[in-house]
Each structure stands twice: as structure tokens, then as C-alpha cells.
Amino acid sequence: MDLGPWEIAIIAVVILVLFGSAKLPQAARSLGRSMRIFKSETKGLINDDEDKQTAPNDARAEAARLREQAARLEAQAGPQELNAPQSGGDSTTVNGVPLHQTEQGKHS
């Protein structure tokens, strides 16, 4: 659909009649602001897509770093016995947790 000079002139006259000469500059500024906002939002969408493509690599690197840190902490702590009885005369443990005398009757 090609617009000739007469069609453009008719559209301009209709716009001038609808908005009036006083509101036309304000409408043009509003249109310009809307176009800037639209452009910035579309750029934001493109940047979000790029971030999503790089995010799995970042997550894998973070997971590897956390695994290495956990291994270092385990090595520093040394071997530990699970479910080891606690020192103390009357303590009984369930899953490594010491029970008080009032709780011993419930689990025995």
C-alpha cells in the first residue's frame, strides 16, 4: 500500500482537525516518549534472552564452586562418626540426638 502525496496531506489535515494546533506539539512529544519507552523495553527483552542463554553456564560454575568448597570443609572437619553415643551417664540417642530421661520412655 503506497501513500501518495494527496493521501498524506488528507491524513495531516484530519490529524490537525482532531487534535487542534495547540495540542499537536504535546501529542508529538507524547508519541516520541512512547516510542523511546517501546525501544528501551524491546532492548530489555533482547538482553533478557541473552542473559537466559548465559545463565545455565553461570549456574554450573556456581555449583562446581560450592562442591569444591564443601569438599574442603569436609576435609578440614575430618572423619566423624554418625549416631555415636554422647558422653554422659544416662543419655540415650535416637539418630545421634541425645534424649532426656522423660523422652526415653516414649522411644523405648
UniProtKB/TrEMBL annotation:
<protein>
    <recommendedName>
        <fullName>Sec-independent protein translocase protein TatA</fullName>
    </recommendedName>
</protein>
<comment type="subunit">
    <text>The Tat system comprises two distinct complexes: a TatABC complex, containing multiple copies of TatA, TatB and TatC subunits, and a separate TatA complex, containing only TatA subunits. Substrates initially bind to the TatABC complex, which probably triggers association of the separate TatA complex to form the active translocon.</text>
</comment>
<dbReference type="Pfam" id="PF02416">
    <property type="entry name" value="TatA_B_E"/>
</dbReference>
<keyword id="KW-0811">Translocation</keyword>
<dbReference type="InterPro" id="IPR006312">
    <property type="entry name" value="TatA/E"/>
</dbReference>
<comment type="similarity">
    <text>Belongs to the TatA/E family.</text>
</comment>
<keyword id="KW-1003">Cell membrane</keyword>
<keyword id="KW-0653">Protein transport</keyword>
<keyword id="KW-1133">Transmembrane helix</keyword>
<feature type="transmembrane region" description="Helical">
    <location>
        <begin position="6"/>
        <end position="25"/>
    </location>
</feature>
<dbReference type="GO" id="GO:0033281">
    <property type="term" value="C:TAT protein transport complex"/>
</dbReference>
<feature type="compositionally biased region" description="Polar residues">
    <location>
        <begin position="83"/>
        <end position="95"/>
    </location>
</feature>
<keyword id="KW-0813">Transport</keyword>
<dbReference type="InterPro" id="IPR003369">
    <property type="entry name" value="TatA/B/E"/>
</dbReference>
<dbReference type="GO" id="GO:0043953">
    <property type="term" value="P:protein transport by the Tat complex"/>
</dbReference>
<keyword id="KW-0472">Membrane</keyword>
<dbReference type="GO" id="GO:0008320">
    <property type="term" value="F:protein transmembrane transporter activity"/>
</dbReference>
<feature type="region of interest" description="Disordered">
    <location>
        <begin position="40"/>
        <end position="108"/>
    </location>
</feature>
<keyword id="KW-0812">Transmembrane</keyword>
<comment type="function">
    <text>Part of the twin-arginine translocation (Tat) system that transports large folded proteins containing a characteristic twin-arginine motif in their signal peptide across membranes. TatA could form the protein-conducting channel of the Tat system.</text>
</comment>
<feature type="compositionally biased region" description="Basic and acidic residues">
    <location>
        <begin position="59"/>
        <end position="71"/>
    </location>
</feature>
